[in-house]
Design brief:
Layout: H1 21-38, H2 44-61, H3 65-86, H4 102-126, H5 132-150, H6 156-173, H7 177-201
Helix pairs in contact: 1-2, 1-7, 2-3, 3-5, 4-5, 5-6, 6-7
Length: 207
């Protein structure tokens, strides 16, 4: 989810300034967003909105305008997810989750791959990005995972695990060790989320 995708706007080890109160608040809200998503609490979305709104402010202040625009997408995805989850509960009040068909999985995978290729090509041609293809893959996969989360498919956690696993060496190569540690935490939470959601999505399980 949105909290699972730290922005370059965060102050990190390679920056010349310490993390500010806004940085820490955005970070803590992001972690809370993931934890609440794992336990299928609708409050994951207000936490996510708060986190990405703050990250967007930081990105805009740092003149990272593409990053700022990406946070607008995450705000919209969180609003959509909040509305969807609020009307998708069982008799006990728990959010109902399910699994995707093979055809739906293939469609999402194909669309995500095509978008990542186009995004990576644009970054490689028009920007000085250090790792354009890697960066594009992580970004597009994060966006796809956020939408799968909003639609309550357990497969979102598979994508988040892939994102987190790919992001660790990416940010290590950029010497952003604070973000590396954060992604390791996200990876552990995503594994927890996958196990819990798959159990909840089984026939007869309380979801």
């Amino acid at each position: 989810m949105s909290g699972n995708a730290p922005s370059r706007a965060f102050r990190t080890d390679s920056d010349d300034r310490r993390m500010t109160t806004i940085d820490w608040l955005a970070l803590l809200l992001g972690i809370a967003c993931v934890v609440l998503g794992v336990v299928r609490s609708v409050w994951t979305f207000p936490a996510g909105i708060g986190s990405v709104a703050l990250v967007g402010i930081l990105a805009a202040r740092g003149r990272l305008y593409s990053d700022a625009l990406l946070q607008v997408f995450y705000v919209g995805a969180n609003v959509y997810g909040w509305a969807n989850w609020a009307r998708s509960r069982d008799a006990g009040g728990a959010v109902v989750v399910g699994g995707m068909s093979l055809a739906r999985r293939a469609g999402w995978a194909a669309a995500s791959l095509a978008t990542a290729v186009a995004w990576g090509a644009a970054m490689a041609r028009f920007t000085d990005a250090a790792y354009p293809w890697w960066d594009a893959g992580v970004t597009v996969a994060s966006m796809a995972a956020q939408m799968l989360m909003a639609q309550r498919w357990w497969e979102n956690w598979v994508v988040w695990i892939a994102v987190d696993a790919a992001a660790v060496p990416l940010y290590h190569a950029k010497h952003l060790e604070t973000v590396v540690i954060l992604y390791v935490v996200y990876l552990a939470l995503s594994v927890w989320g996958l196990a819990d959601w798959r159990r909840a999505a089984r026939p007869g399980a309380r979801a």
